């Protein structure tokens, strides 16, 4: 197992290098002149423009820009954005915010999604099953920004239960955005759990367990659920990776200063160093959480071995 | 020219506003007002993310500008009503015999927030720093009319600039310095209230980076803490403020929002106190919803339709006049902007002295005359015209309306060319790449008529040196402008600027379209909220209601 994990981690290195180069090339390929856009309608003297281009290596060819970037990176220098702020500083400041939002979302997703899915799976065709079916269909079909605005308006502004925006109230600030962010995945988790559970409940080993006279709670909790969890864990794992990549829409609606919005702004301004630094971090998160999922498989299903 | 980027995210905002409007009634009670207001308290203001460090010489857009403005007071200030410069700032007087060499005398008793005095050197050093091209400061060009500016610019071939200090700036003593301009400019004192001209303390040069996050100014508010990107900055009243109008409130928080719609929701919920711009879809309902707390003031700007005078189809002034006369400005203002644009019939904004209400005859709808002019010019109506604008700024709707009017009134088809972001659009303008009329916006730098003429239409402002993207060039116009700049009295200079404007109106390199209005609203927690012609809130004047 240890060797497997080590091998997988080693494999991330070429992936990260490849990904960062691709992202770098894409930012480089964006049309237009970022320094000219920085100036806007007002004139910026040729000397000042030349100075800025030199500062950000914008006159160099792509490969040289990339090598300079990686050269700084291995010395721990993530580069600076156009306003002179260190990218590492931006990451340190925004990563905890994004992580908290992602954590809140995953908790809602796992707890509510699993409970709803399990109950619906056990009592197929019941009123509760239908309720889950209809409500998840509804959630999946509403775009997240509509859900966000409605939730903000109803629970934040009109009822005053939650802060309408910002992160000034600590963890409480993350409840409403976390719910909104989790809503879509929550619906998938509920559906996935239900289907997977329902399918496993029809398996021979379940009949055997029942025939042995095991209590229903043991049959479901110990035997069936464990087997049903594999697709769900895969989904949640991949979802954490995605959530750590920031949630531009939700972050914007609730004015949460996370990484997603930082990347969005940086792309618009063609700030290569910011985009590459943060997106490469996203890639790393994605790989890491997928590795975690693979390791979890082995715990859930003894037949899976990694040696 | 400051660039406002607040128009991004229009779609999401529009949807937000639409959702909100269905549910918001007017529950503004009549209880605002007379609860003893006072000295102290704290309030919050919406801003967008500042794009630059909070250094005056490098703050070029409205968001950071709002914060810098609360932290600094310049040589002169501007009257909120008339926009005339008033000597309530650091300068006791700014005088000249020949409109070219100016003597600036400072008032006693001004100190920076760190306790060091504001001296003549504080200004001269700051201006030299901003003008010196290796420092790459965005406001560098404001000093280009001072003698010796060229020596501070690095040669294009690379290398160091010839000098570090402009020879036109001379410190006489602690309270006095002299400024020598390259050419006479009677309105120069009026320009010195702008952000670029603010003084810097010595602490700035020791740590420019840290300074940009937690600046030290001389204004009514001081920064106790650094700016947190994505969140904002809270400023505290500066008790040793040297000006006549210290801040009324104890604290002001500038809160950064990425979505204007969210800020507006917070304003409705009372968790932010002042929002100085409204989401497009909320404008219609805001006046009713906020009542007395709705603010509307004119902005010092102009939107026009520029013509590529280098393109042979638009080389004839009569063609340009015909297009201008085919546009019904009032109809577009009503239908698309909810009446928040004032139709423009002058190149000079109404907020500055020298504006004439209906200076431009060709700026009125006159379909018959337009068609006659077009026939006379032999314009080929079978070829469509391209209409250019930058993407992502919310310009598509009104440019399309202009296209429709051109089609209807002149029988000329149009094609919208609005796919380019600023990063591509601006270089294309500089390279004479506009193949048809284009959207052009200008926000004034200082309240002087000249600022609406020289930077946009003079020969000296042709790209890459300036923003004259119509590539209009007329020695008579340049001469009239120079005469206004050199005039000894304000009346004489205004008269000369108007003569220059008359030449423009004859040639019509661009069709003036609209002047914008600032629209904002505030909560019941504050009063005396004024938005000036720059779209900035007078932070010192705001009172917190107990």
Automatic annotation (TrEMBL), chain A:
CDD domains: TM_PBP2. The keyword Kinase does not apply. Keywords: Cell membrane, Membrane, Transmembrane, Transmembrane helix, Transport. The chain crosses the membrane at residues 9-30, 101-119, 131-151, 171-190, 232-254, 274-300. GO terms for biological process: transmembrane transport. It is found in: Cell membrane. One of its GO terms (cellular component) is plasma membrane. It is a multi-pass membrane protein. The keyword Transport applies. Residues 95-297 form the ABC transmembrane type-1 domain. Its main location: membrane. Gene3D superfamilies: MetI-like. It holds the Pfam family BPD_transp_1. Belongs to the binding-protein-dependent transport system permease family. This is Peptide/nickel transport system permease protein/oligopeptide transport system permease protein.
From TrEMBL, chain B:
The keyword Cytoplasm does not apply. The keyword Ribosomal protein does not apply. GO terms for cellular component: ATP-binding cassette (ABC) transporter complex; periplasmic space. One of its GO terms (molecular function) is peptide transmembrane transporter activity. Residues 1-23 form the signal peptide. Residues 87-460 form the Solute-binding protein family domain. Keywords: Signal. One of its GO terms (biological process) is peptide transport. InterPro entries: Peptide/Ni-bd, SBP_5, SBP_5_dom. This is Peptide/nickel transport system substrate-binding protein/oligopeptide transport system substrate-binding protein. The lineage of its organism: Bacteria, Bacillati, Actinomycetota, Actinomycetes, Geodermatophilales.
